[in-house]
Design a protein that fits this description.
Blueprint lengths: L1 E2 L22 H14 L23 E2 L13 E7 L14 E3 L2 E5 L5 E5 L5 E5 L22 E3 L2 E5 L4 E6 L5 E6 L14 E3 L2 E4 L11 E6 L5 E6 L23 E3 L4 E5 L21 E6 L5 E6 L15 E7 L2 E9 L5 E5 L9 E5 L12 E5 L19 E2 L11 E3 L13 E3 L4 E8 L2 E5 L10 H4 L2 E4 L8 E8 L5 E7 L8 E3 L2 E5 L4 E6 L5 E6 H4 L11 E5 L2 E8 L3 H5 L9 E6 L6 E4 L5
Length: about 600
């Protein structure tokens, strides 16, 4: 692991003032704590801090203003408790982001079980195992059995299942309260993303872009389970012929909410067929886009398309993140998002207009049968991953081509590949540094396509319009984890990694936590990127696997915990990446007591 340079970094020094507010009214403590987080000061002492939402807050910032673990002591971090779910399978991905509410940690597994655990000890309180789902082998699951998270609200846990069903559970007991069909699983729909709870509603998207579904986002009443509104993610007038009918455009990232503006932000997936645009000429809205909807009605407020007529699977599954950009003495409500194209976009979240210039740039136009867009949006925000090939191996006969070359024969090889930009993992933001934290990788892909390859529902090989090819013999791959400064749009720092950083990071005080798909987890100085702690989880904990989930940070009884899941990714294993199978949930903390390990049975 090598820490690289820091071009364009705003090096303004920060003073972290630690305040102790003994004897002051609770309301004032809350107000000061909120001000400290905004101003970038150290946290006041507290006893309990929840991680109530997928991203800790509705803005999806994944930031916790807590300082018990800091750069001076993080090297002493060790497992406080370990729980094994008992589910170890090569076709399962463990990519969940745990939430913690009032002393209980809630974690879903790839097969839609939900574990409720004591936040201090890991002791199981209850487990939900669905008994009414169809056989998983009958479901249209393209990339491994997966569930990325649950939502909490009004005393309920909300779970999106692989059979495209939304379930509400009693948070105290795990008892099922209601369930609702989001979409028919028989037609290729599924759910792998985490829902969002806001304003008495549960907002959930769907997966299935490889199966020629028709994308949608639905809001349900949190108490009754009845639909409140639905937004179709396909604007048919921008698709040729009747291609919009089964055009894909899923929305499987966690929704982001601005309660003050009353807007919910959705990041959309690929058009279908993924790599074949021969029968869907046009920009194919709202594929590969950021979409703002009215939270109360579901009506479209604005959209910004990151890739026109996407024929590279350059969709944007990572959730949007909200923060404030200070410019010319003004504070601007901003939205940030990194796409699989490798580009980072920073927009005004009120109307979707870029806050850093986006230039429509001419791109390759052959083969013409792909109907490529004449231009693509190119952001002036500095990219974390290279937007072009580096160190191409010779002697393999590869057809090296520039960025945005459409799939064809002979197969063009280009970077970023289908997984080289920002994949599904969420990003994080720190109000102390004004930096965004996320991972990417250098992973060129071959895009193989023929005009005769047309979609056939239910067959992913044909449904993608041919195929992408990776890994490529002789090609070297590596990962990046880094930070983008929201004041300058430049990379603040980045670290080169041997393996892909496929975890969602969490920022806690002056530290950022992230992991690699081989199971190593790191803590770095959030300002400089200097690595301060590494723990190789599979080597230290039996039946622990790759780090492919998202980290959460909470405080209970004055003790700070960093919790993550370690079970690996079926998709990465399928593509010959190092992502060992496992079933572990691990909470790290500073040593105060002997770490405990529990193995859960199949019964609550």
């Amino acid at each position: 692991m090598h820490t690289l340079g820091d071009p364009g970094k705003d090096l303004m020094k920060r003073s972290h003032v630690k305040k102790r507010m003994l004897g002051i009214a609770a309301a004032l403590v809350i107000a000061v704590s909120a001000m400290a987080a905004t101003a970038g000061t150290k946290a006041t002492h507290t006893q309990d801090l929840n991680w109530r939402y997928y991203g800790n807050d509705l803005l999806n910032q994944r930031y916790q203003n807590v300082d018990e673990i800091d750069p001076s002591n993080v090297s002493r971090l060790q497992p406080a408790w370990v729980v094994h779910t008992g589910q170890i399978a090569g076709d399962e991905s463990f990519e969940a982001s745990p939430i913690e509410v009032d002393g209980t940690v809630y974690v879903p597994t790839g097969n839609d079980a939900v574990f409720a655990l004591d936040a201090s000890t890991g002791k199981q309180k209850w487990v939900y195992r669905p008994s009414d789902m169809p056989p998983l082998g009958k479901l249209a699951i393209c990339c491994g059995h997966d569930n990325r998270g649950v939502a909490y609200g009004d005393g309920k846990i909300f779970l999106g299942r692989l059979d495209a069903t939304l379930v509400a559970l009693d948070a105290a007991s795990g008892r099922k309260l209601w369930q609702a069909t989001v979409a028919p699983w028989q037609k290729g729909y599924t759910i792998t993303g985490a829902p969002q709870f806001a304003a008495g509603k549960v907002v959930i998207g769907i997966s299935g872009g490889e199966y020629e579904i028709h994308g949608r986002v639905t809001a349900f009443d949190a108490n009754s389970g009845k639909p409140a509104w639905r937004f179709d993610t396909i604007e048919a007038s921008t698709w040729a012929g009747n291609s919009a009918k089964n055009g894909g455009v899923p929305a499987w990232g966690n929704p982001t909410v601005d309660p003050q503006l009353g807007l919910v932000y959705i990041t959309t997936g690929n058009a279908s067929p993924d790599f074949n645009g021969s029968h869907r000429a046009g920009n194919d809205l709202y594929a590969s886009s950021d979409v703002a909807l009215d939270l109360s009605s579901g009506k479209l407020r604005w959209y910004f398309q990151e890739v026109h007529h996407d024929i590279w699977d350059y969709d944007g599954p990572s959730p949007a993140i909200l923060f404030t950009v200070n410019r010319n003495g003004r504070s601007i409500a901003a939205l940030g998002h990194c796409a699989k194209s490798g580009q980072y976009f920073i927009l005004d979240r009120r109307d979707g207009k870029p806050l850093f210039a986006v230039n429509e740039t001419k791109v390759p136009q052959q083969p013409a049968w792909q109907h490529p867009s004449p231009t693509q949006p190119m952001s002036t925000v500095q990219a974390l991953t290279p937007l072009g090939l580096q160190n191409e191996p010779k002697g393999y006969g590869y057809n090296y081509q520039p960025y945005f070359t459409p799939a064809d024969y002979p197969m063009p090889v280009e970077q970023p590949g289908t997984e080289a930009g920002c994949e599904w993992p969420p990003t994080a933001f720190s109000p102390r540094t004004n930096d965004i934290y996320y991972g990417a990788r250098y992973e060129p892909t071959g895009f193989r396509g023929k005009q005769s390859s047309i979609g056939h529902p239910g067959n992913t090989t044909k449904d993608t319009g041919s195929a992408f090819v990776r890994p490529l013999p002789g090609m070297k791959y590596w990962g990046y984890f880094g930070a983008t400064n929201t004041r300058t749009g430049k990379i603040a720092w980045k670290t080169k990694l041997d393996e892909a950083p496929l975890t969602g990071p969490a920022v806690a005080g002056d530290l950022v936590f992230y992991g690699e798909t081989d199971g190593k987890v790191h803590a770095a100085d959030a300002e400089t990127g200097k690595n301060l702690w590494t723990y190789d989880v599979p080597k230290q904990i039996k039946n622990a696997g790759g780090a492919d989930g998202a980290f959460s940070v909470y405080e209970r009884n004055g003790r700070e915990y960093v919790v993550g899941v370690f079970g690996g990714s079926a998709m990465e294993r399928h593509l010959d990446q190092k992502s060992p199978v496992g079933d572990a949930i691990v909470a790290f903390a500073l040593p105060r007591r002997v770490a405990s390990t529990s193995r859960n049975s199949s019964q609550p």
